[in-house]
Fold this protein.
Amino acid sequence: MTTTSQRVEDLTGKTALITGGSAGIGRASAILLARHGAQVAITGRNEERGRKVAREIEEAGGEAHFMVSDVRFADQCQRAVGETLERYGRIDILFNNAGVYYPNTVPDCSESEWDLTIDTSLKGAFLMSKYSLPSMIERGSGVIIHCSSGWGIQGGERAAAYCAAKGGLVVMTKAMAIDHGPRGIRVNCICPGDTDTPMLPDDAKQRGLSWESYLEGASDRPMGRIGSAEEIARAVLFLSTDASSFVTGTALVVDGGGIAG
Ligand SMILES: NC(=O)c1ccc[n+]([C@@H]2O[C@H](COP(=O)([O-])OP(=O)(O)OC[C@H]3O[C@@H](n4cnc5c(N)ncnc54)[C@H](O)[C@@H]3O)[C@@H](O)[C@H]2O)c1
């Protein structure tokens, strides 16, 4: 018997387009949305890794398609959206997940690190939304989810460019929700806390910390641990489905209480 919550979370016949879907939170979200019936279009820069995720989804009985696309470039975003529409005929869910992080203060941050950070998280979300929205507006429905961070809400040490990008996404979410709500489009963002993905060991290394001491830093938080990519993906699923049918313009913090204090 199908329960009401299974029905609400059913994404059969829907298409999700996920940027940076070959690793971490993007990969976990692609797998979870596909498990709930969505056909999943994934973008990323690494073809081998991306195809591997698509294969993994297909081997589990789902439908997935990987496209090499760098979110920093308008022509590549436009091509990814066009290819998704051509293949699946619609984009119901856009998850602007791609992001990069360089732990730097403003004086230490090079201009290229600043540009990479802002262009990947903020401009990438703008470009992918810009090209996806017309078909959503035409259909009168759609869901856009940006990937912000706890550091989009509060500041963090050696994270000025990252906080600027992620903070920008929180307010852009609200502006887009106002603009597109009347056409049936919901726009939200998630704000994960530290999550076990390839991004964190990279950060630990760049800060000169061992993985063990990095993890110890999470032990005084309310839930005493970092999150898993699957736990963040469940928030993406919630915002993707009718379980959140009256939720728009919000920044959903998923961080085990990390910024609650
Ligand atoms: N891991 C965390 O602790 C954490 C916390 C808060 C927010 N986030 C955010 O979650 C999102 C996913 O990060 P993750 O932790 O899974 O890290 P990750 O490094 O595992 O994944 C990031 C993905 O984005 C892709 N990507 C990077 N630049 C790209 C570009 N220009 N074009 C297309 N794809 C690109 C990468 O190839 C990778 O697949 C990011 O936006 C990140 O800022 C992560």
Summary: The chain has one domain: 6-198+229-252. The chain has a mean pLDDT of 96.
